[in-house]
């Protein structure tokens, strides 16, 4: 049953990513919407992990929300492809900023989430 729920969580996360990406691309150019999505997914996962560590969230709920939803919502592969495209088109400055931000911002977001909810 947990596997089915994780799959449903992943489907919901994928749909959420599509909707958020579509909305953000009206305001920001590629690759910044992907960075925002990955950072927000990391923040949510940090919050969930903190709740689980504090005993407020069970393993099945963490699997569904963390592995399922956050896994479907975040997208490292898109970030990697967008970084490649920036390098391929000669946008080295943007590629450098995006690459560094793509590594640091999600880690900081996950750390913040965990810090906010861990006992």
UniProtKB/TrEMBL annotation:
Notes on how activity is controlled: Na(+) is not transported, but it plays an essential structural role and its presence is essential for fluoride channel function.
Localization annotation: Cell membrane
Primary localization class, coarse: membrane
Membrane-spanning segments: 32-54, 61-84, 96-118
Signal peptide span: none
Membrane disposition: Multi-pass membrane protein
Keywords carried by this UniProt record: Cell membrane, Ion channel, Ion transport, Membrane, Metal-binding, Sodium, Transmembrane, Transmembrane helix, Transport
Reactions catalysed: fluoride(in) = fluoride(out)
Residues that bind Na(+): 71, 74
Family classification: Belongs to the fluoride channel Fluc/FEX (TC 1.A.43) family.
Role summary: Fluoride-specific ion channel. Important for reducing fluoride concentration in the cell, thus reducing its toxicity.
Name the UniProt record assigns to this protein: Fluoride-specific ion channel FluC
